[in-house]
Amino acid sequence: AILRRAADEGEDDRVMTCGPLVMNVDRHEVSFAEEPIDLSATEFRLLQVLLEHAERVVTREQLLRDVWNIDFDSETSVLDTYISYVRRKVHRDGFAPITTVRGVGFKVVEPPANP
């Protein structure tokens, strides 16, 4: 994901992009090809952490700590549940940026550039 500062009407919002996916952190907005996506606060935070670490694996432990403040080894399925929620909302038109790294965690993968 690319983190950029958007100068829109004098504002300095933190914006991250990954292909057609755009997250405005300061406005708490996410869109896909300029179409708004409705995310819960937890879904938003999960996607934010993944985008902040784009192209790098984010471990299950790190996600549990950063999103849910769970700081111990947990067999909870909450992470898998929320990953599926976010994937349903942002994986569209062949664009599927959230990948599973088996036994480790998840990562966001940038789509290949169009030639």
Number of continuous helical runs: 3
Task: Please state the structural category.
Answer: alpha+beta
Strand order within the widest beta sheet: 1-2-3-4-5
Mean pLDDT across the residues is 88
Rg value: 14 Å
Main β sheet profile:
5 strands, antiparallel
Helix content: 25-40%
Spell out the key features of this protein.
disordered N terminus; alpha+beta; 3 helices; 115 residues; 3-stranded antiparallel sheet; Arc Repressor Mutant, subunit A
Question: Would you write up a description of this structure?
Answer:
By secondary structure, the chain is of the alpha+beta class. The chain has a single domain, classed as Arc Repressor Mutant, subunit A, CATH 1.10.10.10. 30% of the residues lie in helices and 31% in strands. It has three helices and eight strands, in the order βββββαβααββ. Strand 1 (2-8) and strand 2 (11-18) form a beta hairpin. Helix 1 crosses helix 2 and helix 1 crosses helix 3. The longest helix has 13 residues, at 78-90.
List the helices and strands and how they pair.
Elements: E1 2-8, E2 11-18, E3 21-24, E4 29-32, E5 35-37, H1 41-52, E6 58-59, H2 60-68, H3 78-90, E7 98-101, E8 105-108
Antiparallel strand pairs: 1-2, 2-3, 3-4, 4-5, 6-8, 7-8
Helix pairs in contact: 1-2, 1-3
In short, what is this structure?
The protein is of the alpha+beta class and 115 residues long. 30% of the residues lie in helices and 31% in strands. The protein has helices at residues 41-52, 60-68, 78-90, and strands spanning 2-8, 11-18, 21-24, 29-32, 35-37, 58-59, 98-101, 105-108.
